[in-house]
Amino acid sequence: MRSFLAAVEALAVERVRQACEEEARRVEDGRRAACAGPERFSGDMGRALAVSEVAVAEGIGEFAAARLLAAAESLCGVQLAVLDRLEAGMLTEAHACVITDETATLPEAAAGEFGIECLRRLETRTGRRRTPAEFRRAVRALRERLHPESIRARRVKAEKDRGVWVKPEPDGMCTLTAFLPAQVGLAVHPRVDALARARRDADPQEARTLPQLRADALAAAVLAQAEDGDVPVPAAEIVVHIPVGTLLGVGEEPGELEGYGPIDAATARELAVAAPTWQRLLDSAEGVPLSLGRAAYRPPKGLRRYIEYRDGMCQFPSCTCPGRRGETDHVVEWQHGGATDAANLQILCRKHHALKSLGLWRAERLQPNPDGSAGDLHWTSPLGGTALAGPVDRELGPLREPRPTRDDPDPPADLGGSGAEGPGARSGCRA
User: Fold this and answer.
1) Tens digit of pLDDT at every position of the chain (431 positions)
2) What is the dihedral of CA 132, 136, 139, 140, to 10 degrees?
3) Rounded to whole angstroms, how far apart are CA atoms 54 and 41?
4) Residue 277 to residue 273: CA distance in whole angstroms
5) What is the pTM of this model?
6) How far apart are CA 28 and CA 408, in angstroms?
7) Contact, 354 vs 27, CB < 8 A?
8) Spatial distance between the Cα atoms of 53 and 68, rounded to a whole number of angstroms
9) What is the C-alpha to C-alpha distance for residues 279 and 274, in angstroms, rounded to an integer?
10) How far apart are CA 360 and CA 336, in angstroms?
């Protein structure tokens, strides 16, 4: 039954993709006919719209939605034989994902035959069904033998996806992930291991475990200045939002570390002590301009900083791009009479800003909350789907869990901050 439902989901997602591509073509044709202004979207508009539609509909991140979309397109296209097996319950969704993952970069002419060959390897020679992990190893070996391109040519293409992502973890920790060429990664790990073992051998009283020493050696190697001084290493920037009471030591309310979330008061104070730069963010009674009406289109730095702090991240439902990397958007467009004030401004990443400006998604600000803070945003898709999004509630924690993604040029990797709009003051320190 689970396999059958996975097949139904793939068919539904493929229909969404086709509908979104048709909608994107309609919008693009309309822009060309009207000789509209500069291009707002430089990538595949239909694909981006479909990813956002699936992410919102399923309540998942856009990285997961992009993978689901790619798998559905493959299953409903060149891998129809795999879809038939899945629908009949003759293989699991995990096995089907192995096939779609491994055929993702195959030319279309070779992908169909490859999928059929993969199905022949679902079982061992003794008739035992291979586990998904065993099946992936067998399929990957088959792919290397049958791929029409050389492994060197494929490596050159794959290297374009290299990058580094961070994922917040519980209890003040995070996971740092690097996607690197194999020879680089296999050179980095032994180097870090050697540094850790050397430190342990040099001090018989060393209490840290080898994994702890490796982690500390990696951090020291990345953050330390070059010894010879020839290679300039920029200082890391850490942005911390600290309640005034916590900063003065009269309260223990947690601070907030941009890119992670809440941190304990003691750690926040330690970071504040080392901060070379301070910025205060106050409410309107203290002078931050929260409304310019129709007097100006672009918000000043103070208002922009306030919106960044309040929203914390892109205000599109499925996106976790941090606010500092986003763009300021008028919920009611400026050309349609929208004002430049806190109630009508939001932070959107470049991709979702473009989709909204093109009219492919519509946003509406709901009524303010009882405490006076900005109301949520009600989003409507071109296919009729709806979803709510809003600033992070500091008391309840992040509303959305970040997912490292590769479908965006700059993958969102952190939670950002949220701000209170009521009386009082918060300080931001950059270390």
Assistant:
1) 999 999 999 999 999 999 999 999 998 888 777 766 555 666 788 999 999 999 999 988 898 999 999 999 999 999 999 999 999 999 999 999 999 998 887 888 888 888 999 999 999 988 899 999 999 998 888 887 777 777 777 778 888 889 998 888 888 888 999 999 888 888 899 899 999 999 999 998 899 999 999 999 998 888 875 444 343 444 555 667 777 777 777 788 887 777 677 788 888 888 777 766 666 554 444 445 566 666 678 888 878 888 888 888 899 998 888 888 899 999 999 888 888 888 899 999 999 999 999 889 999 999 887 766 778 999 999 999 899 988 765 443 443 444 444 444 344 333 233 333 333 333 344 33
2) 180
3) 19
4) 10
5) 0.68
6) 21
7) no
8) 12
9) 14
10) 16
Tell which residue, 349, 356, 339, 331, has the closest CA to residue 298: 339
Q: Which residues contact 355 (CB under 8 A, 6 or more apart)?
A: 41, 45, 48, 49, 52, 361
Q: Which residues contact 250 (CB under 8 A, 6 or more apart)?
A: none
Q: Which residue do the tokens 């795999």 mark?
A: 82
Q: Residue 381 corresponds to which amino acid?
A: S
Q: Phi and psi dihedrals of 397, rounded to 5?
A: 90, -175
